[in-house]
Every structure is written in C-alpha cells, then in structure tokens.
Amino acid sequence: MTQERLRLSLGIIADPQYADREPDLDLDRHFREVPARLKQAIEHFDTLPLDAIVVLGDLIDRDFESFEPVLEILGQSRHPRILLPGNHDFSVSADRLADIHATLGMPAPYYEYRLKGLRILIIEGNEISLFSSAPEDPRHIEAEARVTRLRAAGAPNAQDWNAGISATQEGWIRDRLADAAAAGEPVILLGHYPIHPPSDHNLWDSERLAELVASSPAALAYLCGHQHKGNYATLDAAHFVNFCGMVDTADSNAFAVLEIYDDRIEITGLGREPSRRLALGVSSQ
Questions:
Q1: Which of 67, 104, 217, 271 has CB atoms 3.0–4.6 Å from 253's, for a disulfide?
Q2: Do 252 and 35 contact (CB within 8 A), yes or no?
Q3: Total Cβ atoms within 10 A of residue 138
Q4: pTM surpassing 0.85?
C-alpha cells in the first residue's frame, strides 16, 4: 500500500477552563481537575513529533490570575503553541481586558500562521461581544445591537455568551482564503465558536462565515471548541470539527491528535474525544 505524505500534525485541546473554584455540578465542569488533565495531555503530546499544540479557547474559566498555572504547564511542552481566546478568557477585571491576546502569546487578535506549506487562520470570534470590551466601546455597542436583532429573529445562538466578528475581520478571512487558493496552499481555520452546523453555541451570523469557508477551494477544515459536548459536520468539501471540553466530567479527560495527509485528516481522540477519519477533496453535496 502506498504511504501518503503526513503534512502536518497538531495536538488539540479545547476549553480547559481552569479556575480555583468548586465544580459546577449542573454543567458537570470540574475546574480544579484541569491542571492534571493538561499535564496528561502535554505528556502524551511530548511523546509525538507534533508541529504545534493548539488550544481552542477558554484556557481559564474566570479571574486573570488563573492564567499563570495553566500557561506554566503548557510552557513545559517541547512543542510550539498556538493559543486563542474564548469567551471565558475575558472573564477578568475590566483593566485586564486589553491584556488577553498578549497573555496568550498572540501577535494580533486574528492573524495568519504558515506552517509546513499550510496556512492556519486564527479567528477572533470574541471581537464583537458583550464581554470583551467596555460598555462605551463601539464594539460593545455593536454587539448589543446585533444580539437584539438576532433575538428578534428568534436565532437560537442569540446568547450573551456567544459573540461575532466584524465586517473588517470577515473581509480579511475572505482575502486570506482567496490568496491561499490562488497560491495552491491549503488552509486550516481555528476559532473558539462553532459556525456549522447550526446550534445555540454558534458564532453570531455564523451562516455567512460557514458559507465563505465551504466555498473556498483552499479550506480543509474549521476547528473549534465552545460547545463542550463536541460536534461534527461537513459543508461542501469542508470539515467542521467541534472538539469536546477538557473541563467536563469528574474523572475523564478530552484531547486529540490531528494529522493532515494529502487525502485525509486523521483525528485520534483521547478520553471523551472521538476519533475521526475525514476525507479531503470530497464534496458532501
């Protein structure tokens, strides 16, 4: 049998959501168990020749001081790290809101990262929200108007704990996908919020972004967290993978290794994360 080329290998973690607080039994989230679970994931990842470790948002549950212990654990890995914020990462005092991206080691709120012939687009889904900026900020004002409009339309994702992106960021995503397609370079997109299939956890106005991703010949997959139970769907030839939350349940972990080959994506799930084999270049329509 012909051996296909392994193009990229990533360790994936979603929603660790650490805080030094009692568990939320209603949501089955066990915050103090997170450091041990992160250490287990890092120890596993360090046995593998990964290209990077990705955390898909909600590194903490609340309080800025929660960042230090989990960033210290991640920093013990021998692999590079790609971190992005989720809604809970902004559950800090107002004077620390502007520090979140730098704390996560991000060069910008959203940006392109090139790795071994692939492009990785890191999306900032918290850009327009009720929690990532001060009430007088134009982004906060826009968020209030947008969630009001969505509620009037009966949208299930019209929730205060969801958020959206600006027209500027959407245009940037469109331009980067077009540039990658022209260059013949495949793209993986990373975000905190699901955009497909529809759910009450989706990014505001997610349908437009999902169609943009699905219509791009360069886009292989969109990877996210936020909906802790996980999910998966396709749209045209693009894959949309929602990874399970690490913080959930009293005694089980959830993380994954994702490998991109010429013809497929292999996801090896650990703990509650399911394993998947996703064919590339095959439309679901």
A1: 271
A2: no
A3: 10
A4: yes
